[in-house]
Amino acid sequence: MDINVTFPSEEYFRLTDKEVNERILVAKSALGDSLFILGHHYQRDEVIRYADAVGDSLGLSKKAAQTSAKFIVFCGVHFMAETADIITAPDQVVFMPDVTAGCSLADMANIDQVEKTWQKMHYFSPEKTIPITYINSNVALKAFCGKNDGIVCTSSNAQKALEWAWSNGKRIFFFPDQFLGLNMAYRMGVPLEQILVWDQNKPFGGHSKQAIEKSRLILWNGSCCVHQEFSKEQIDLLRQGDPAIQIISHPECNFEVVQSSDFVGSTEFIIRKISDSPDGTHWGIGTEKNLVNRLKNRFPNKKIVFLQNYEPFCVSMSQTTSVHLLFILENLAKGNLINQVLVESEYRENALTALNRMLELA
Ligand code: SF4
Questions:
Q1: pLDDT at residue 122 in the model
Q2: According to the model, what pLDDT value does residue 129 have?
Q3: What is the b/e burial string over 69-93, where b = at least 16 CB atoms within 10 angstroms of the residue's CB?
Q4: Would the CATH topology of 2-103+317-345 be identical to that of 106-224?
Q5: 20 closest CA partner among 53, 54, 46, 48
Q6: What's the gap between Cα 89 and its chain centre?
Q7: Which of 37, 78, 126, 303 has the fewest CB atoms found within 10 Å of its own CB?
Q8: How far is the CA of 266 from the centre of ligand 1 (A)?
Q9: With a cut of 50, which residues of the chain have pLDDT below it?
């Protein structure tokens, strides 16, 4: 990804909240319909309040594909802005308020490692394998999937993507998040002995020829550090203290947490489930703090707690502040195109193929 990195000057950080708010509204108004701001659920409140659309990765991908605004400002992390750049028209331009906001999960797999693993797994078992990349991945991996008859998925549509892939091949190679792949496949009835986690530091991922031949799912050993904060022990403690509590977790959580949860689903699923539940219900939620705190504020008549006794937050998502947003908007209003996200042309076509397959699944 080619990026120009420009940070706000000191003067911006000396502004009061009131001044930041007033100037953001002025810049938004000056940009009018040429501007569309997308905000992921894990963004800070001070940022999300200015978003024209709020959602998870799938929802925001669809919004990016639908808008005709010339300037799309993505309040999220790199891979999301890359996705928006690929699926929008050539005359639309994508920016990030803080273009250095990455995703540690996406960084856990790179194209060289994935290509080497792909070759090794085919050495023992040449049958058709379908690659699936979680949308939380860099663009080269999405292009790899497009080129090799594979697909992109999000936590909202992972089950559909797995069904699609198994109808097209014997085995799935899923990266970079092992837990999304594992939790979904197990829920779909795939036995654990047919699911392998590939250890790149061991010959053939640490598996025998027979195990690879029998496998239906090979998982990259990546994970999200935020969702690994939750544990079964904490869930057990919550249940002991409150027998009425219902546990709802994100599928990036580890296997034990997911198995101990009453409900499992994407951020959109979690929001819908809590919204639809009656007043007086008790919930323990296993996902990032900004989303959970917004639910707490929105539903004061429901008891909502974290699965941990602290508030787990995504450092990358929190990097974007209202000051960064103001900075990008004022520059755009002056015609300064800074912090643009521009995907390399070599990956664009194949990545779009894999993303379109995902969007068609919906
Ligand atoms: S919560 Fe996890 S997967 Fe999501 S952006 Fe942060 S590190 Fe990446």
A1: 86
A2: 96
A3: bbbbbbbbbbbbbbbbbbbbeeebb
A4: yes
A5: 46
A6: 22
A7: 126
A8: 13
A9: none
Looking at residue 279, the DSSP 8-state letter turns out to be T
- 319 vs 157: CA distance, rounded Å: 27
Specify the pLDDT at position 4.
Answer: 67
The two counts, helices (H) then strands (E), for the chain are: 17, 15
The tokens describing 258, both together, are 């997911």
Task: Using DSSP, state whether 303 is helix, strand or coil.
Answer: strand
> Both tokens of residue 299?
């539903």
Describe the crossing of helices 78-87 and 345-361 by its angle, rounded to 10 degrees.
90
For ligand 1, the distance from its centroid to the CA atom of residue 256, given in whole angstroms, is 20
| Total-model pTM | 0.95
Phi and psi at residue 306, to the nearest 5°: -80, 160
The CATH number assigned to the domain with range 2-103+317-345 reads: 3.40.50.10800
Spacing, Cα 180 to ligand 1 middle (Å): 13
Residue (of 53, 41, 97) closest to 73 by Cα position: 97
According to DSSP, the β-strands at 263-264 and 245-249 are: parallel
226 lines ligand 1 (CB under 6 A): yes
pLDDT tens-digit map of 93-122: 999 999 999 999 999 999 999 999 999 888
Q: Which tokens sit at 103?
A: 């995703």
Out of 75, 225, 228, mutate this one to test ligand 1's pocket (max ligand atoms within 8 Å of CB): namely 225
Edge-first strand listing for the sheet containing 282-286: 263-264, 245-249, 282-286, 303-306
pLDDT at position 16 is: 98
State which CATH number among 3.30.70, 3.10.590, 3.40.50, 3.40.1350 fits the domain covering 106-224.
3.40.50
What pLDDT sits at residue 127? 86
Nearest atom (ligand 1) to Cα of 224 = 2
Which class is 227-313 in CATH?
Answer: alpha beta
Q: How far is CA 293 from CA 84, 155, 288, in A?
A: 27, 21, 9
* Domain ranges, ordered by start, for the chain: 2-103+317-345, 106-224, 227-313
